[in-house]
Specification:
CATH topology of the largest domain: BirA Bifunctional Protein, domain 2
CATH class of the largest domain: Alpha Beta
Largest sheet: 5 strands, antiparallel
Structural class: alpha+beta
Distance between the termini: 79 Å
Number of strands: 10
CATH architecture of the largest domain: 2-Layer Sandwich
Strand content: 5-15%
Order of helices and strands: EHHHEHEHEEHHHHEEEHHEHEHHH
Strand order of the largest sheet: 1-3-5-4-2
Length: 453
């Protein structure tokens, strides 16, 4: 079984890491490159690449960067996006039980974990240390994404995701995992993991696509073919279906992620229950292709309407209720993104109507009110934390923990409304400009039509 932990690199890693090299010498060398701001990252690298721990640095892998120039490349990304201050990097580790894995397997698991957790957006260096009986991996993650310049946010949700991915990979290698349970602090990481799946478009769309492939397949082979046609890579590890879609690096273990309903046996059973009389199949919509896709006849018609039934169907067709080649299409990722944006605008409109906000001043007043409300809730929660820390018995602690959870749920709603206030204020000027441009375009088109007459 493997345990994981992550913490930030901001000033120094005091007393946690004993450095193996001369600190002053390292610092002076780095000042020659103007990189003294990144001294802490260098110290982590020096510790992690210690030959006494890594067997002459054999078990070291860079993801989205070269190991020997990792610090320089991390600095370049920070300079490009103007984010050289604050948290410089994150340092994480993954530790195994004594005698549970070989160095090769430990490093392989560490690389897979890093690729799935951070590999699609961040630079990571993976080190496997062999100096103790418990083999363990170290990860140094750049705090700034090379893809979009956004910073990595280390919160409970991402921590839960790190634990879950580590467990899933360990299970693939036949290793035991820790049973998830509520911590002494009252935190249940399973709930945070479920939240990460609800908030992730990747998981949500993957589930929809799997359901779609199951519904429109009649054999397992056809199910796999449909997954491939939608851009998914699939494979079976330890007898379990796993899928992944570019540009994501994260593998989705279908049964573990979506539940027992998506086990191989249940997927096959759902496929076998499909109606074989259905003739048309929804096909993925493809942009940029002029070819017209028509519904394919999978099975020969078993019944052809005759007499008054045929007349009824023909009459519906003449009235426009029943159209030919009315094959629905599956939305592309770009279309899904547009639908998501439309839903978000709808949410903002409902928010404006709920509080009857008509001007920017109304939004500012509501924002100030919500900020005061947020501070009151935070003060209440802090008092509850203090009360729980001084509780005499477990029963009293559990009661206070439930109160904290209730207060936190209210705080989440207030924070969401504050975010909507900020988004509306930011969007108003852009929307006004777009509306003005659209109206000017309409006026020009109207004048052009008048001249054409």
């Amino acid at each position: 079984m493997a345990t994981t932990k992550i913490w930030k690199v901001q000033k120094r890693i005091d007393k946690v890491i004993s450095y193996a090299t001369n600190e002053e010498k390292t610092k002076n060398n780095y000042s020659e490159y103007g990189m003294d701001k990144f001294y802490d990252i260098r110290q982590v690298m020096i510790y992690a690449t210690n030959p006494d721990k890594t067997e002459q640095q054999f078990f070291i892998t860079g993801i989205n960067c070269e190991v020997k120039d990792a610090v320089k490349q991390m600095q370049v990304v920070k300079m490009i996006y103007g984010k050289e201050n604050g948290i410089l990097a994150f340092h994480a580790y993954q530790s195994f039980n004594e005698g549970e894995v070989t160095p090769e397997i430990a490093h392989e698991i560490g690389v897979k974990l890093a690729e799935e957790m951070w590999g699609d957006r961040f630079q990571v260096v993976v080190f496997t240390h062999l100096n103790t009986k418990h083999l363990h991996n170290h990860f140094v993650i750049n705090s700034v994404s090379f893809k979009d310049g956004k910073k990595y946010y280390s919160n409970l949700t991402n921590t839960a995701l790190l634990r879950k991915i580590s467990d899933e990979i360990c299970e693939e290698y036949g290793l035991k995992v820790l049973e998830e349970k509520t911590c002494k602090s009252g935190i249940n990481f399973e709930n945070f993991y479920k939240k990460s799946m609800r908030d992730s478009d990747y998981y949500k769309f993957a589930k929809e696509d799997i359901d779609y492939a199951i519904k429109h397949s009649y054999t397992t082979k056809e199910f796999h073919k449909l997954l491939s046609s939608m851009g998914y890579y699939y494979y079976y590890r330890a007898g379990k279906l796993t899928i992944r879609k570019e540009p994501y690096k994260r593998n989705i273990r279908v049964e573990r992620t979506f539940g027992e309903e998506y086990s191989d046996e249940n997927i096959l059973q759902r496929i076998m229950q499909n109606d074989y009389r259905r003739e048309k199949r929804i096909i993925p919509y493809r942009i940029g292709e002029s070819k017209v896709y028509k519904a394919k006849d999978i099975f020969k018609k078993l019944y052809k309407p005759k007499g008054i039934v045929a007349l009824y169907y023909y009459y519906r067709f003449l009235l426009g209720f029943h159209k030919r080649n009315n094959t629905p299409y599956k939305l592309t990722p770009k279309m899904r993104e547009a639908v998501k944006k439309m839903d978000h605008y709808s949410e903002q409109i409902r928010f404006l109507c709920k509080y009857k906000l008509e001007t920017i001043d109304n939004v500012d007043e509501l924002r100030k009110k919500k900020l005061r409300e947020k501070q009151d809730i935070l003060n209440t929660r802090n008092r509850l934390y203090y009360k729980r820390s001084n509780a005499d018995n477990e029963i009293e602690k559990d009661i206070v923990t439930k109160e904290i959870i209730d207060v936190t749920s209210v705080l989440t709603k207030v924070r969401k409304e504050l975010k909507l206030c900020d988004e509306i204020c930011d969007n108003v000027s852009d929307i006004k400009e777009q509306v003005k441009t659209k109206e000017e375009k309409k006026i020009i088109e109207k004048k052009c039509r008048r001249y054409e007459r």
